Amino acid sequence: MLQSKLFPKTKKSAPKDAESVNHKLLVRGGFIDQLMAGSWTLLPLGWKVITKINRIIREEMNAIGAQEMLMPLLHPKEIWNETGRWDKASEILYKLKGQNEKEYALSFTHEEIVMDLLRKNIQSYQDLPVYVYHFSTKFRNEPRAKSGILRGREFMMKDLYSAHVTEADMLDYYEKVKEAYGRIFSKLGFDFRIAEASGGVFTDRHTHEFQVLSDAGEDTIYFCDRCGYGENKEIFQGKVGDKCPKCDGHFVESRSIEVGNIFPLGTMYAEKMGVLYTDHDGKKNPVWFASYGIGPTRVMGTLVEINHDDKGIVWPKQVAPFDAHIIELKSQNSKLKTEEIYYNLHEAGIDILWDDRAVSAGEKFADADLIGIPVRLVVSEKTGDKIEWKERKGKESELKTFDEVVRRLKG
Ligand code: ATP
Ligand code: MG
After folding, report:
1. Nearest-angstrom CA–CA distance, 395 and 118
2. Where in the numbering of this chain does the Aminoacyl-transfer RNA synthetases class-II family profile domain appear (predicted)?
């Protein structure tokens, strides 16, 4: 990609109302744009990052047998009345009227929609289990939408739903999803803890939250300094230093960002919505149900909160918008040489942003630091037939041959 063509350009200063680091840096770098509080466009650079985050999530979902689909966002009032959540979730549910005064809700989650799919398509125990997920928008009338892209009124979620014949089968799959979530957040480089929490408008049971340790978080968790067992502040009844109920360790406290939450819902939804299957003896029973959510847009904001310095973002390789950033320092014949390097890297399957603009070296370096691609490749008269390799994280730079650059980027 040629940087001269990239939409939009970077910004020298952050918006006046921006309070959080992710808001400031993602807007300045040209990753996101705010339409109004809590409502964001994912610009081309931001969309590239989200696509990479989603690829990591999708791989792990498919690996545990889940099937991807896509559900609608506009829901009839009647379906929300079946579980009582039209009223119970009133605070966050966006409600609207259509033709002939008919009432609708904008989706804040999809349990009711999956339940409706199941009751139309499940007959016997032979049709279960079912594991389905989608990536789509959620709408929530959030009272505070101040933490940049960490809290949107419209945001992206990957939500997975599982339906089972027995509680044991549900809990077994629940553990599998917990492990898959652990792998996703490890691949993203997060220092996270799993915290027990309440189920809010979803369930009376305890749920498990995936909490990334960060001062930018709105949550507080208490967790064991030894085994990592954790509880959200909302249910924790002890104090810092108390002994862990699971081992000899002690509780410590941290601010944190909730990036994922899994819910062992039970049979309540199936009972309310009449989602029944016939067992071996011909008896009808409600299905056991669980749901599991990760917010990719909040994940992107979290990555920025924990990977930045005073100059800009420092993307981890696995989610960076490009593999490397070529910076060409102007000289008579460097353009030709850079063009050759750019196309050859492209041929080698490496995704490159090439700063081909006619601006000063200082401006190019400042933008490269802001955008935060992990590897910067400088081509100039001084680098001769080699390329200067510098990592966004480090201070050192080295001269490398083209082949060395390819090997390192592919490794
Ligand atoms: P919070 O407590 O932060 O309001 P929640 O517990 O209501 O979030 P869940 O219903 O558990 O959210 O949603 C699953 C996941 O979706 C969360 O773990 C988070 O990653 C993401 N998410 C939830 N609300 C938002 C939001 N307003 N903006 C961006 N992502 C969100
Ligand atoms: Mg939650």
Report:
1. 56
2. 38-316
